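Bug #77: duplicate submission created two jobs. Keeping one. Sequence:
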Amino acid sequence: MDRGLGELGFADHNPMPEPFDDWRMLREDLPRYFDEVAKARAEFPQLNIKLGLECDFIPGQEKWIEELAGMAEWDYLIGSVHYLPEGWEVDNPKYLSRHTGGAAEEIWASYWRLYAQCIRSGLFDFVAHPDLPKKFGIHPAGDLRRYYDGAIAALAESGVPYEINTAGWRKDCAEQYPAHEFIELAHAAGVPVLISSDAHTPGDVGAGFVEAAALAKSCGYTETLRFTRRKRFTVPLL
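Kept job's structure:
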């Protein structure tokens, strides 16, 4: 199916120096990953295929991310937060019960502090799914902009872009990552934006792009970004 995409980007989850969890590639998988992307480029020369990596920001592992950055001619490295400092995955269904019973305030505060550190680390070309803890439709009461402010300040001060991630529409929260209010604040602060479908299956590639672009434009955006060899280029938001 022709989805009218200007490029197709791969971004598997980064390996860790040693086996770490059961949902990311292993260190020894990297050569195969490079080979598969090279094979796709050769087989479909009409497509603009990009090589990327989504990297978990975990304090103490910064040197490993720097090492990974030198292992290939990446088009982009994406920073993300899945693991809270307390040591568990904020988006893993097996920990869903931890989000209940009034724990949302503590979880969100912990997540957003770490997310700001991720942004300020200088390791990444853009950051992924900013308000991931809402995946299960659970969030603190009241105006959530109190959690966004620190991340928006970090984005604006560092010049790091963020993504509108359409995968949230396919989760319990039934809302893109990040929330509309975050997008409005980010635009007002002059923070660049990208749009990603965060596809884990072929059918999800490009899913929700039309709606996400309309949302971005409703918040004032007229441009988005593309990356080649970790250099970014501005393109019109169509």
